[in-house]
Amino acid sequence: MAEHTEHTEKNRQYFDNLAKSYKDSFKPVLDGICRNVTARRTWISDTWTDTEAGQGKEIKVLDYACGTGVVSLTLAPFVSKIVGMDVADNMINQFNQNAHDAGFGDKMSAIKGDLLSETLSDELSGPEYSDFDIVVVSAALHHFEKPELAMSRFCQRLKKGGVCLIIDIVPDHHRMAHDFGEAEHTVTNHGFTEEQMRQLHEGAGLNEDFRYQSMNEQFVYQKDGKQRTLTFFLSRGQRA
Ligand SMILES: C[S@@+](CC[C@H](N)C(=O)[O-])C[C@H]1O[C@@H](n2cnc3c(N)ncnc32)[C@H](O)[C@@H]1O
């Protein structure tokens, strides 16, 4: 496996330790994300196993920085195959356990992988890791050191016309910065505006039919002994 950057290594350590408590600690946020993905599924893409455009097609998803797999579990009934990828072993184990428990063990599984390292590992060069119909990255872009590089790496993994879906945090214009508590050292961005996401999608060649929507609700959760509030957005663009 290729070597992580120093920043990715900080994330790996932090999320490896958090993996067991992650689903419970962030429950209101994760439930909210899944609710919004479900409500906007045909806004994200028109090609699913239960839609006309997707009928009879093999629909392959990459869930990058997949964590415990909440978004994959939401999409699994409507796709053929999901590859989860993350740098934290304990997250990958949780993902695979959750997939098995939900009865999706045959179509979704996670592996350890880092698409953001300087040089990419040969293990990720096989056909099973390319030509995806959808790459989804949920609650993770704000942890990446170089979001531009990340977006172009996601573009490379998509087939032409494939959708890159980013779910992340709307900046807080009142406080300027969110309070990430003990996770602060793992964070590089305090959210992304529509304009920033447009530029990120465009810069990576993911500019076809760009769309951005705020989830228009605040998710309230407790972390490190404090009540915290976040608003999320979804953005999507297709590989030109
Ligand atoms: C806040 S969690 C989000 C997990 C999941 N996508 C979700 O929506 O619940 C961030 C995840 O990003 C992963 N991560 C951080 N940096 C990464 C990198 N460079 N490559 C792959 N995964 C990374 C962490 O291990 C963690 O599982």
TrEMBL record:
Pfam families: Methyltransf_31. This is Putative SAM-dependent methyltransferase. Keywords: Methyltransferase, Transferase. InterPro entries: Methyltranfer_dom, SAM-dependent_MTases_sf. One of its GO terms (molecular function) is methyltransferase activity. One of its GO terms (biological process) is methylation. Residues 57-175 form the Methyltransferase domain.
